[in-house]
From TrEMBL:
Main subcellular location of this protein, as a coarse class: membrane
Pfam families in the cross-refs: HAMP (PF00672), HATPase_c (PF02518), HisKA (PF00512)
Protein name: histidine kinase
Molecular function terms, GO-annotated: protein histidine kinase activity
Length: 443
């Protein structure tokens, strides 16, 4: 059912409910007013009650000839009816017995504990109230019909205007969604509104932008992977085609070159798969308690040949001999190795790299953390490159043909490994001075 139809149906139900409510209020108000009159002037009611009870007693506990009797207090009442034994024995006034039973004020008659009859009475004020009620009930159908007609026309116009205004942003939102389905990168939503429709529109726009970013990232990833695969594949293909065309056997140097390219391809594929699993949360960790100082010492020994080859001064300082962390050793070593080898690559010959392992307490976080600082005296990272250094295939030197054969995935894998251990990485860098990577792990 459309919103316009729902509004019209709701308005119609509301109108009927209001009319029924007015009818109920009028009905209740009559009885309240009737009883208030009794409470304000009880004496005539008590006198009339006493006279009828005395008549019953004086006539031998009988209502014989009560219909022709005269009662002094009856002059104060416009309507009187005596009911006993299911019959009307005495009546004064214009109303029928049924009308008095329904709307008259009930005065019970008793002798001792015995109920001898019931009086239904109306004094002049009560009779006027009854007359107003009767007149109102007589007019109510016409008033209700006129009100229903007038209100219905007004409601239809109001509903049409309201429904048009209410459904206008919905139509715009639907139009924006249809634009997204057709591939429009900039759909139009009513974001200027201050209500829920504006909030929905902003959420849809942000969702569309997120999806567009994800799609751009996917396409960029495909392009980067293809680019990285192309170079080694072309080298391997060229060497093999040349050997096939000439019929000459591959020399040891050519075989070594092809082997290096195959290793490069294998490393790229494994790193892409590894990063994809980490980002998707599909890598299951098996943490154990490890001495982080010992792990960093193991790391420096594995990279010793790299720093000696470039004559880089590599130093390690640890505050304590043992700093215990719960980690998967292979994953943490992989993360730290990627960061350290990145520092070695960007540090010129004769430069310095220092590693520092310590425990720290941070003001914005609970508990203590282990911190590994890897500081180099390399070229540094520019401000425009710094936010992207953990992106896949991003290289701050914008060179895709590294002599070292790097894939541009090392820092991305390092960050995901650290995040998987509930840690994080901070980077500070100054162009021409160097870079500091700070890795935090919960103790």
């Amino acid at each position: 059912m459309k919103i316009r139809n729902k509004l019209m149906l709701s308005m119609g139900v509301l109108i009927v409910f209001i009319l029924l409510f007015l009818l109920g209020v009028t009905h209740v108000q009559f009885y309240i007013s009737r009883d208030i009159v009794y409470l304000q002037d009880k004496k005539p009611f008590d006198s009339l009650k006493s006279e009828f009870e005395q008549f019953y007693i004086h006539h031998g506990d009988s209502w014989d000839n009560v219909g022709s009797a005269r009662f002094e207090s009856a002059a104060a009442f416009a309507e009187i009816a005596l009911s006993a034994g299911g019959k009307i024995l005495y009546q004064q006034g214009e109303l029928s017995a049924d009308e008095l039973r329904s709307d008259g004020y009930l005065v019970p008659l008793n002798v001792g504990d015995q109920r001898i009859g019931r009086l239904y009475v109306m004094n002049d004020r009560q009779f006027k109230i009854y007359g107003f009620k009767t007149m109102w009930y007589g007019m109510l159908p016409n008033i209700g019909l006129a009100s229903l007609l007038f209100t219905g026309v007004a409601a239809l116009l109001t509903i049409f205007l309201l429904s048009w205004r209410l459904t206008s942003p919905i139509r715009k939102i639907i139009g924006g969604i249809e634009s997204i389905k057709k591939g429009d990168a900039a759909p139009i939503f009513p974001e200027h509104r201050k209500d829920e429709f504006g909030a929905i529109s902003r959420s849809l726009r942000e969702m569309n932008e997120s999806l567009a970013d994800a799609e751009r990232t996917r396409k960029q990833l495909m392009s980067d992977v293809a680019h990285e695969l192309k170079t080694p594949l072309m080298i391997i293909q060229g060497e093999l085609e040349l050997a096939h065309e000439t019929g000459a056997s591959l020399s040891a140097a050519k075989q070594a070159s092809i082997h290096d390219e195959v290793l490069r391809l294998s490393r790229l594929v494994h790193e892409v798969l590894d990063l994809s699993r980490l980002e998707a949360g599909m890598t299951e960790l098996h943490p154990r308690t490890e001495n982080l100082v010992a792990l960093v010492e193991d790391l420096t020994s594995k990279t010793k040949f790299m720093v000696e080859d470039k004559q880089i001064d590599l130093s390690l300082h640890a505050e304590e001999e043992v700093i215990s962390v719960s980690v998967e050793k292979g994953r943490i070593l992989q993360a730290l190795y990627n960061i350290l080898t990145n520092a070695v690559y960007y540090t010129p010959p004769g430069g310095q790299i220092s590693l520092r392992v310590e425990t720290v307490r941070l003001p914005d976080r609970e508990g203590s953390y282990a911190r590994i600082r890897i500081e180099d005296s390399g070229a540094g990272i520019s401000e425009e490159d710094l936010p992207h250094i953990f992106d896949r295939f991003y290289r701050a030197d914008h060179s895709r043909a590294r002599p070292s054969g790097g894939t541009g995935l090392g820092l991305a894998i390092a960050r995901q490994n650290i995040l998987a251990h509930r840690g994080w990485i901070n980077v500070q860098s100054t162009v021409g001075t160097g870079t500091v990577f700070s890795v935090y792990l919960p103790l």
